[in-house]
Amino acid sequence: MLSQLSLRKAENADADRIWEILQQAINKRKEEGSDQWQDGYPNLEVVKEDIANNYGYVILENEQQIIGYVAIIDAVEPAYLELEGKWLTDGKYAVVHRLAVAQDVVIKGLGTWTMQEAEKVALSKDIKSIKVDTNFDNIGMLRVFEKLGYSYCGEVFFRGGARKAFEKVLE
C-alpha cells in the first residue's frame, strides 16, 4: 500500500481537501480526549499561508487522491527559540507541522512514511536537521518519533500549552 504513495507540493486547488483532512484530524483528537488542535488552529487560513509560502505538501494515493497533509517549513520556528531543554544542533533545520491523514482512508504506517518523506525534502534542501513537537498525549506521533530515532529535547510552548519537542540529525 505504501508503494502507491507520493508526496507533492500543495496547490491552491488542494486547500478544501486539505482542510477536510485537518478537520477529520481535529475531530479525532477531540474524540481521543485531547485538547490538541481544539482552539481554532489549524484552520483554512493557515493552510493557505502554508501553500503560499511553499511549505504545504499533500500525500497522494495512486498519484491522484489526497489522503494527507504536512507542512515542511524551512524557516525559524519562533517557539523553538524558547525551548526548555537543549536542541541537538544549533544550525539550519526544517520543522514539520500539521501532519494529518484522512480518517476515511486507513493505511498503516502513513505517519511514519510521511515523516520519512519530510526527511528527504529537508535533505534535498541541504538541511541536516528536523525539529518537531507534539502534544504529550499524541501517542501516535510519539511512536513515530521513537521509531524513526528522534531525540527528546525538552518542551516548547504554543498558544499557552507545553508540547514535547524532538530533533533528528539527518545523514
TrEMBL record:
Gene Ontology terms for molecular function: acyltransferase activity, transferring groups other than amino-acyl groups
Coiled coil: none
Residues spanning the membrane: none
UniProt xrefs under Pfam families: Acetyltransf_1 (PF00583)
Keyword vocabulary terms for this entry: Acyltransferase, Transferase
Domain N-acetyltransferase span(s) in chain numbering: 5-171
PANTHER family assigned: AMINOALKYLPHOSPHONATE N-ACETYLTRANSFERASE-RELATED (PTHR43877:SF2), AMINOALKYLPHOSPHONATE N-ACETYLTRANSFERASE-RELATED-RELATED (PTHR43877)
Name of the protein: L-amino acid N-acyltransferase YncA
Species for this entry: Algoriella xinjiangensis
Species classification: Bacteria, Pseudomonadati, Bacteroidota, Flavobacteriia, Flavobacteriales
